[in-house]
From TrEMBL:
This is Uncharacterized protein. It comes from Asaia siamensis.
Length: 411
C-alpha cells in the first residue's frame, strides 16, 4: 500500500466524493461527502495576522457564494425554475422579474427576518494595528465600487456602487418602508468646533451623509454632474426633501425658534430651469435664480414670512420694509420698471368693486417728500389750469391741485 501522501491529487473536488472520518472519541469511523464536510460548522481561531505571507489564514471561493435563504437559489442560467429563494420568487411576480440573485456573485438572505448582513470597523483597531498593517487604514464598515469601464458607444452597461430597493406590499398600512436609514449617533457631547460651508468638517462632528467628488484622487479626474438627483422610474416623489418638525436643533416647528435647514456659501444659489430647448438640450437655460452676493453680515438682509406680512429686515432683525397680508384683496399694486421714455412707477390694478386710488401715508407728523426740477421760479400764476386739476386727499379731505402746462409756465 503506498504512503498516504503518495496518492495522486485530483484537480478539484466537486462535492459527492466520499471521505472517511472518525467520531471525536476515535471509536467509530464514518463516511461523509466533501459537500457535507464543507457544510459543517467551521471553527477557525484567528491567527493574529493579516497578510498571507505572515501566517494569516486566507479562505478563497473562486465562484459564487450564497448564504442563508440565498442558498435555495439554484443558480441556473434560466429564470424558469420550479423552486428558488424567497426573494427571487417574490420578484418573479412583478413586471421586472427575478434579476437580483441571477446577477449576484455572493448573496445573503435571512430566513428569520433578522439582519441579512452586518459589517463594522473601529478606528481604535486601525491605530492599534497600524504597525502590523504598515499604515493606518480608513475605518469603513462597508465599501463598494461600481466601475464604468465599457467604452463602447452606445452601451447598456451602467455602474452602481450601491443599489437598494424597499418594497411596500399591498395591505401594509401601519409601518413605513425605508430604502435606507442613516443614523449619526453622538455619544461624545458637543463637537469641538462648528461646521460651516467654509469649514464643513469639524473635530468631533457627526454627519449622516458626506457626498464628495473625486475619491481623493490627485490627478486625472474632473468635476462630477450632481450630488443628488431625483428621477421618475417610472413613479414620482410627492415631496423631494422633507424635514421633520423636530429634526433640526433650534425649533420644534411650533414655537418662536429658528433652525438652519440648508446652509450655503456666498455665490451659491437656487435655479429654476425653463422647459425650452437650446443646443438640443432641454432645460439648459435658467428662468429664475435666487442667490446671495453679500460679503459681510453687517450688509446682509433677511426675508421672513410672518403672520403680519412679508418682512425684510437686516441681519439683526430690524425691519427695513414689510408687505402686509390681505385675505381678500381686490386692488393690487404693481411695481414696474420703465423702458425708453416710459416711466418706472407704481401702478394700481383696480379689482371688481374696488378702488382706483393709490395711497401714500406718512406717519403722524411726517410729510411726503420728493425731488423734481423747478421751473419759472417767482413767475406769475396763470389764470387757467391748462392740465386740469390733480386729485389729492390729505388727512381725509379732498383737494384739487392745478396743473399748468409747460407752455404756460416754461420748462
Amino acid at each position: 500500500m503506498p504512503k498516504f501522501n503518495n496518492y495522486f491529487r485530483i484537480p478539484a473536488v466537486a462535492g459527492p466524493e466520499v471521505l472517511v472520518i472518525a467520531t471525536p472519541d476515535g471509536v467509530e469511523t464514518l463516511n461523509a461527502t466533501a459537500s457535507q464536510i464543507a457544510g459543517a460548522p467551521a471553527d477557525s481561531p484567528p491567527s493574529g495576522e493579516f497578510f498571507a505571507e505572515e501566517g494569516a489564514k486566507i479562505s478563497r471561493y473562486g465562484d459564487r457564494f450564497f448564504i442563508g435563504a440565498a442558498s435555495d437559489y439554484p443558480a441556473l442560467n434560466t429564470r424558469d425554475v420550479a423552486h428558488q429563494d424567497w426573494l427571487s420568487s417574490l420578484m418573479a411576480t412583478t413586471s421586472i422579474g427575478p434579476w437580483a440573485l441571477e446577477n449576484a456573485q455572493a448573496a445573503s438572505l435571512s430566513r428569520f427576518g433578522n439582519s441579512a448582513f452586518v459589517a463594522g470597523s473601529r478606528t481604535s483597531d486601525a491605530m492599534k494595528w497600524r504597525d502590523k498593517l504598515g499604515h493606518v487604514p480608513s475605518t469603513i464598515g462597508v465599501a463598494s465600487w461600481g466601475i464604468a469601464d465599457d467604452a463602447t458607444n452606445p452601451t447598456q452597461a451602467t455602474a452602481y456602487a450601491y443599489y437598494g430597493e424597499a418594497w411596500r406590499m399591498p395591505g401594509v398600512n401601519y409601518q413605513p418602508s425605508f430604502v435606507m436609514e442613516l443614523e449619526a449617533v453622538n455619544l461624545g457631547g458637543p463637537a469641538y468646533g462648528m461646521s460651516t460651508p467654509y469649514h464643513p468638517n469639524c473635530g468631533g462632528g457627526t454627519y449622516a451623509i458626506q457626498i464628495g467628488a473625486g475619491g481623493g484622487q490627485t490627478e486625472g479626474t474632473a468635476d462630477c454632474e450632481a450630488g443628488i438627483v431625483f428621477v421618475s422610474n417610472p413613479d414620482s416623489w410627492k415631496t423631494g426633501i422633507l424635514f421633520g418638525n423636530t429634526a433640526l436643533a433650534g425649533t420644534n416647528g411650533d414655537d418662536g425658534g429658528y433652525a438652519t435647514a440648508i446652509s450655503m456659501a456666498r455665490g451659491q444659489g437656487i435655479e429654476w430651469r425653463t422647459p425650452e430647448t437650446r443646443e438640443h438640450v432641454q432645460g439648459l437655460d435658467a428662468g429664475a435664480m435666487l442667490f446671495s452676493t453679500v460679503s459681510q453680515t453687517a450688509k446682509g438682509q433677511r426675508i421672513q414670512f410672518a403672520d403680519d406680512g412679508l418682512l425684510v429686515t437686516n441681519m439683526t432683525g430690524n425691519l427695513l420694509f414689510s408687505v402686509s397680508p390681505n385675505n381678500a384683496p381686490t386692488n393690487t399694486l404693481n411695481i414696474q420698471a420703465g423702458s425708453g421714455l416710459a416711466a418706472a412707477g407704481l401702478y394700481v390694478q383696480k379689482g371688481e368693486n374696488g378702488s382706483p386710488n393709490l395711497g401714500l401715508y406718512p406717519a403722524e407728523g411726517g410729510e411726503i417728500q420728493m425731488s423734481s426740477p423747478v421751473a419759472s421760479l417767482g413767475g406769475a400764476v396763470p389764470q387757467q389750469a391748462g392740465g386740469g386739476f390733480l386729485h389729492l386727499n390729505v388727512n381725509g379731505k379732498d383737494y384739487r391741485v392745478p396743473l399748468f402746462t409747460a407752455e404756460q409756465v416754461g420748462d
